[in-house]
Design brief:
Elements: H1 2-7, E1 16-20, H2 43-56, E2 60-64, H3 74-83, E3 87-92, H4 99-106, E4 113-118, H5 123-130, H6 134-152, E5 159-164, H7 173-183, E6 187-191, H8 212-228, H9 240-250, E7 267-270, E8 275-277, E9 291-292, H10 298-302, H11 305-315, H12 334-360, E10 364-372, H13 400-405, H14 407-416, H15 428-440, E11 443-450, H16 462-471, E12 476-479, H17 489-492, E13 495-496, E14 507-511, E15 514-517, E16 526-530, H18 536-543
Helix pairs in contact: 2-3, 4-6, 8-9, 15-16
Bound molecules: iron/sulfur cluster (2 copies).
């Protein structure tokens, strides 16, 4: 990334893709400048864009707005990003997060979907900025998501508050942080106002000269608390130096800092109408398009001369700017770069060394079948008609008979990859992690079966899952109906009937993010660990201690 910046080139893919999925919003906040009617990308265009991004190696997807939840297909779009192995951070005002939508979001693994909820102070301060009742509705949305996660038995999801520090919440700010902590928020990202040319006070939110001494003292306390980890300000994710810089920003005393802006290097930003946009060097983030995802491949936009010209503007930017989201604190100076390069270089080496060591050590054969649930939906349920509707819900079911009669419906479901996002839908990354863990632990399952409660043919990346198992030298079997055989040539060669999945003793199941064991009876299947968060080898060693490894 540093070399990309030095040479003004695209030597690395962006870290994240931010998309204004809509510019519509149900609120009218006084400081908002990004809320108006605009053409929007369709569901298909958005999922296609995510496919391109995933193929480029982009790891994070940020759906932004407007209010993203205005779009009824948002969950489907996010599920697609998750299915393609991306991490998603959803930024929302929370007011549309009703229980049914919270339940749909809770179906996505907490490790993959984080949420940023905009809250600009207590009810009084927030509603003055965002409209009467907005605070109560935002908190109802927050609680709905927490409840939905709890109902599914999910681990605690990261939900951060995005809090603008402004004139209206200055005095109660620390008490508000304490309240957020008590409410269970995972963190707080403190935001800073942009001055609006047409309204220098930003709806009365901008600090007056009389406020500034109070702001000085507050920001010093916040930075100290952030450093010491004492007090509610420890919830803040902003760097202490950035917190100390806030009063200078409001005094117009911030000089361009020696650390660079990474806009156009780390982030690729797409507006609702599909135009690629970025900061113009004057804090106008939607000014001037340099590409259009409706007409160009994402990869071409990223490498284009037009973006190169925009990067030159960013590189020369001297605007006093406090955009923490662009990681402006990161520096061209060598030590952090060398550290990052060394860490990056070390990761694959570490993994290779661990795998080599595991190969040298004789593996402990586990007389278990690892059953990897690629899909939790069975293929013999009715409901294909749902696929014909543009507003098809995630989790829609597919009937093989209907699929045969309607290949177009299957194709669309296939392309979306969202037929089976209600539960399960384990992807390559999860399977790779489980197999890596087992390798490192020196454990060797007897076989890998893909597909458990559902039809593995519903998984769009099935051939890649099979290839992964084969590369690891496992005897791979795929439980799917014939209906999908033509779509997965590699898996078809290893197809067994769905009913043939082993259900007796000696089976281990990865289900959603959990690893379960079923040594005795399917009905007694116990959840024994969470494969996202734990080492699968440790989980299995607990379930199958060495003395039982050859007898189960
Ligand atoms: S919730 Fe966000 S997008 Fe909507 S008006 Fe407020 S700031 Fe703008
Ligand atoms: S430093 Fe700030 S104003 Fe300059 S390009 Fe980056 S985000 Fe824009």
């Amino acid at each position: 990334m540093w070399a990309s910046r030095a040479l003004v080139r695209s030597l690395a893919p962006p870290d994240w893709l931010s998309v204004n999925v809509t510019l519509r919003c149900n609120l009218r906040c006084v400081m908002c400048t990004t809320c108006y009617d605009s053409p929007e990308l369709t569901t298909r265009e958005l999922t296609g864009l995510l496919d391109e991004a995933a193929d480029m190696g982009v790891r994070v997807f940020n759906p932004l707005g407007g209010e993203p939840l205005v779009r009824e297909d948002l969950e489907e779009v996010i599920a697609h990003a998750v299915a393609r192995g991306m991490f998603v951070t959803l930024t929302t005002n929370g007011t549309l997060l009703r229980p049914e939508r919270a339940a749909r979001l809770a179906a996505l693994p907490p490790s993959r979907l984080h949420v940023n909820l905009s809250l600009d102070g207590d009810a009084d301060a927030h509603d003055r900025v965002r409209g009467h009742g907005a605070f109560a509705r935002a908190m109802a949305g927050y609680r709905a998501l927490r409840d939905a996660d709890a109902a599914r038995g999910n681990p605690v999801r990261t939900i951060r508050a995005n809090v603008l520090l402004h004139r209206g919440n200055l005095h109660g700010y620390e008490a508000f942080l304490a309240w957020l902590e008590a409410e269970g928020f995972s963190g707080v990202q403190q935001l800073t106002l942009f001055r609006d040319e047409s309204d220098a006070t930003v709806g009365g939110m901008w600090f007056t000269p009389e406020d500034l001494p109070v702001l000085d003292a507050l920001c010093a306390r916040l930075a100290d608390a952030r450093e010491t980890g004492i007090g509610p300000a420890r919830l803040l994710v902003n760097a202490p130096d950035d917190l100390r810089a806030v009063p200078r920003y409001y005094r117009d005393g911030l000089t361009p800092r020696d650390a660079p802006c990474w806009a156009g290097w780390k982030e690729l930003y797409v507006n609702a109408d599909g135009r690629a946009v970025m900061c113009d060097g004057t804090l106008d983030f939607l000014a001037g398009a340099y590409g259009d995802v409706r007409r160009q491949a994402l990869r071409d936009i990223w490498r284009s001369d037009a973006l190169r010209a925009r990067r030159q503007v960013v590189k020369a930017c001297t605007t006093p700017c406090i955009q923490g989201c662009y990681l402006r604190r990161e520096s061209d100076s060598l030590p952090p770069i060398a550290g990052a390069l060394a860490a990056n270089a070390a990761r694959p080496v570490e993994a290779r060394v661990a795998r080599t060591l595991a190969r040298l050590r004789p593996p402990r054969p586990l007389d278990v079948t690892l059953v990897f649930e690629a899909s939790a939906r069975t293929s013999d349920d009715a409901g294909l008609e749902a696929l014909w509707r543009p507003d098809v819900a995630p989790g829609a079911r597919v009937s093989p008979a209907a699929l045969r009669a309607a290949p177009e419906g299957l194709r669309r479901a296939w392309e979306r990859g969202s037929v089976d996002t209600d539960r399960g839908f384990g992807g390559e990354e999860l399977l790779a992690k489980v197999l890596d863990d087992l390798d490192r632990g020196g454990l060797r399952p007897r076989a890998l079966w893909i597909g458990w409660r559902g039809d593995a043919g519903l998984h769009p990346a099935l051939d890649r899952l099979v290839a992964l198992g084969e590369r690891r030298g496992l005897d791979v079997r795929v439980a799917m109906t014939e209906d999908f055989a033509a779509l997965h040539p590699r898996a078809a060669a290893r197809r067994v009937d769905v009913a043939g999945v082993p259900s007796g003793p000696c089976r281990v199941v990865t289900w959603d993010a959990r690893v379960l064991t079923d040594p005795h009876d399917r009905r007694q299947t116990r959840i024994v660990g969470n494969a996202w968060e734990e080492d699968a080898a440790e989980v299995l060693a607990r379930a199958y201690p060495p003395s039982t490894s050859s007898s189960v």
